[in-house]
Amino acid sequence: MSAVVAITDTPLYRPMREADVPVVLAIEKRAYHYHWSEGIFRDCLRVGYGCWVMELGGSIGGYGILSLVVGEAHLLNICVAPEWQKQGYGRLLLEHFIELARERGAYQMLLEVRPSNKAAVRLYRARGFRETGQRKNYYPGEHGREDALILGLAL
User: Fold this and answer.
1) Domain ranges of the chain
2) Which residue of the set 28, 63, 124, 146 is catalytic?
3) C-alpha to C-alpha distances, 141 to 29, 130, 138, nearest whole angstrom
4) SS3 115
5) In this predicted model, what pLDDT tens digit does every residue of 48-69 receive, in sequence order?
6) What is the pTM of this model?
7) Catalytic site residue 146?
8) 18 given a catalytic annotation
9) Which of 49, 63, 112, 146 is catalytic?
Protein backbone atom coordinates (compact mmCIF):
# COMPACT_ATOMS: atom_id res chain seq x y z
CA MET A 1 0.00 0.00 0.00
CA SER A 2 1.26 3.51 -0.81
CA ALA A 3 1.97 6.05 1.86
CA VAL A 4 0.27 9.44 1.74
CA VAL A 5 2.66 11.84 0.01
CA ALA A 6 2.90 15.62 -0.14
CA ILE A 7 1.75 17.43 -3.29
CA THR A 8 5.22 18.98 -3.38
CA ASP A 9 6.43 15.65 -4.77
CA THR A 10 6.48 15.60 -8.55
CA PRO A 11 4.65 12.64 -10.06
CA LEU A 12 6.22 10.51 -12.76
CA TYR A 13 3.93 9.50 -15.63
CA ARG A 14 4.78 6.42 -17.66
CA PRO A 15 2.99 4.02 -19.97
CA MET A 16 1.21 1.22 -18.15
CA ARG A 17 2.73 -2.24 -18.55
CA GLU A 18 1.13 -5.67 -18.28
CA ALA A 19 2.96 -6.13 -14.97
CA ASP A 20 1.16 -3.04 -13.57
CA VAL A 21 -2.32 -4.49 -14.05
CA PRO A 22 -2.55 -6.23 -10.63
CA VAL A 23 -1.62 -2.98 -8.82
CA VAL A 24 -3.96 -0.91 -11.01
CA LEU A 25 -6.78 -3.41 -10.43
CA ALA A 26 -6.23 -3.30 -6.66
CA ILE A 27 -6.52 0.52 -6.73
CA GLU A 28 -9.60 0.29 -8.94
CA LYS A 29 -11.29 -2.08 -6.49
CA ARG A 30 -10.50 0.18 -3.52
CA ALA A 31 -11.69 3.31 -5.32
CA TYR A 32 -14.89 2.11 -7.00
CA HIS A 33 -17.75 -0.07 -5.87
CA TYR A 34 -18.44 -0.97 -9.52
CA HIS A 35 -14.95 -1.40 -10.92
CA TRP A 36 -13.38 -2.48 -14.17
CA SER A 37 -12.19 -6.06 -14.48
CA GLU A 38 -8.64 -7.25 -15.06
CA GLY A 39 -9.71 -8.29 -18.55
CA ILE A 40 -10.83 -4.78 -19.45
CA PHE A 41 -7.46 -3.33 -18.44
CA ARG A 42 -5.60 -6.02 -20.36
CA ASP A 43 -7.80 -5.45 -23.43
CA CYS A 44 -7.09 -1.70 -23.29
CA LEU A 45 -3.36 -2.43 -23.30
CA ARG A 46 -3.74 -5.00 -26.08
CA VAL A 47 -5.60 -2.67 -28.46
CA GLY A 48 -3.14 0.17 -27.87
CA TYR A 49 -5.16 2.71 -25.91
CA GLY A 50 -3.15 5.35 -24.07
CA CYS A 51 -2.77 3.53 -20.74
CA TRP A 52 -0.68 5.50 -18.25
CA VAL A 53 0.21 5.28 -14.58
CA MET A 54 1.21 8.03 -12.16
CA GLU A 55 3.98 7.16 -9.71
CA LEU A 56 5.37 8.86 -6.64
CA GLY A 57 8.33 7.41 -4.84
CA GLY A 58 8.15 4.27 -6.97
CA SER A 59 4.51 3.50 -6.07
CA ILE A 60 1.59 3.65 -8.48
CA GLY A 61 -1.01 6.01 -7.10
CA GLY A 62 -3.12 6.73 -10.15
CA TYR A 63 -3.78 5.74 -13.74
CA GLY A 64 -5.92 6.47 -16.71
CA ILE A 65 -6.97 5.12 -20.09
CA LEU A 66 -7.33 7.35 -23.15
CA SER A 67 -8.76 6.42 -26.53
CA LEU A 68 -7.98 8.66 -29.48
CA VAL A 69 -9.94 8.37 -32.72
CA VAL A 70 -9.99 10.90 -35.58
CA GLY A 71 -9.04 13.88 -33.45
CA GLU A 72 -11.36 13.05 -30.58
CA ALA A 73 -9.91 11.93 -27.24
CA HIS A 74 -12.12 9.89 -24.93
CA LEU A 75 -10.97 9.55 -21.33
CA LEU A 76 -12.29 6.09 -20.54
CA ASN A 77 -11.00 5.77 -16.98
CA ILE A 78 -9.07 7.97 -14.58
CA CYS A 79 -8.46 7.07 -10.97
CA VAL A 80 -6.34 8.14 -8.00
CA ALA A 81 -5.77 5.70 -5.15
CA PRO A 82 -7.99 6.58 -2.17
CA GLU A 83 -4.97 7.35 0.03
CA TRP A 84 -3.71 9.88 -2.55
CA GLN A 85 -7.08 11.62 -3.05
CA LYS A 86 -7.84 15.19 -1.94
CA GLN A 87 -4.21 16.22 -2.45
CA GLY A 88 -4.37 17.56 -6.00
CA TYR A 89 -3.20 14.41 -7.76
CA GLY A 90 -6.47 13.97 -9.64
CA ARG A 91 -6.04 17.42 -11.16
CA LEU A 92 -2.42 16.65 -12.11
CA LEU A 93 -3.39 13.32 -13.68
CA LEU A 94 -6.21 14.96 -15.63
CA GLU A 95 -3.78 17.61 -16.92
CA HIS A 96 -1.42 14.85 -18.05
CA PHE A 97 -4.18 13.31 -20.18
CA ILE A 98 -5.27 16.67 -21.59
CA GLU A 99 -1.68 17.36 -22.68
CA LEU A 100 -1.34 13.86 -24.09
CA ALA A 101 -4.50 14.36 -26.16
CA ARG A 102 -3.25 17.73 -27.44
CA GLU A 103 0.14 16.27 -28.36
CA ARG A 104 -1.63 13.59 -30.37
CA GLY A 105 -3.70 16.13 -32.30
CA ALA A 106 -7.08 15.84 -30.57
CA TYR A 107 -9.40 18.81 -30.94
CA GLN A 108 -11.66 17.77 -28.05
CA MET A 109 -11.79 15.45 -25.07
CA LEU A 110 -14.91 13.63 -23.90
CA LEU A 111 -15.62 11.60 -20.79
CA GLU A 112 -18.51 10.12 -18.85
CA VAL A 113 -18.98 10.67 -15.14
CA ARG A 114 -21.56 9.64 -12.58
CA PRO A 115 -23.57 12.68 -11.43
CA SER A 116 -23.28 11.20 -7.93
CA ASN A 117 -19.46 11.50 -8.10
CA LYS A 118 -19.56 15.12 -6.95
CA ALA A 119 -15.78 15.47 -6.48
CA ALA A 120 -15.08 14.32 -10.05
CA VAL A 121 -17.82 16.54 -11.49
CA ARG A 122 -16.34 19.55 -9.63
CA LEU A 123 -12.83 18.72 -10.89
CA TYR A 124 -13.93 18.43 -14.51
CA ARG A 125 -16.07 21.56 -14.44
CA ALA A 126 -13.30 23.56 -12.75
CA ARG A 127 -11.01 22.51 -15.63
CA GLY A 128 -13.53 23.74 -18.19
CA PHE A 129 -15.40 20.59 -19.15
CA ARG A 130 -19.02 21.29 -20.11
CA GLU A 131 -21.99 18.96 -20.25
CA THR A 132 -22.71 17.84 -23.81
CA GLY A 133 -25.29 15.16 -23.07
CA GLN A 134 -26.31 12.18 -20.97
CA ARG A 135 -26.22 8.44 -21.36
CA LYS A 136 -29.30 6.92 -19.79
CA ASN A 137 -28.81 3.92 -17.49
CA TYR A 138 -25.09 3.87 -18.25
CA TYR A 139 -23.61 2.83 -14.90
CA PRO A 140 -24.61 0.00 -12.58
CA GLY A 141 -25.87 1.33 -9.27
CA GLU A 142 -27.01 0.30 -5.86
CA HIS A 143 -30.66 0.75 -6.83
CA GLY A 144 -30.68 -0.12 -10.51
CA ARG A 145 -28.76 1.94 -13.07
CA GLU A 146 -27.39 5.48 -12.98
CA ASP A 147 -27.20 7.89 -15.88
CA ALA A 148 -23.85 9.30 -17.00
CA LEU A 149 -23.09 12.91 -17.74
CA ILE A 150 -21.13 13.33 -20.96
CA LEU A 151 -18.63 16.15 -20.52
CA GLY A 152 -16.50 17.70 -23.22
CA LEU A 153 -13.51 20.02 -23.38
CA ALA A 154 -12.33 21.85 -26.49
CA LEU A 155 -8.58 21.40 -26.87
Assistant:
1) 12-154
2) 124
3) 15, 24, 9
4) coil
5) 999 999 998 899 999 999 999 9
6) 0.90
7) no
8) no
9) 112
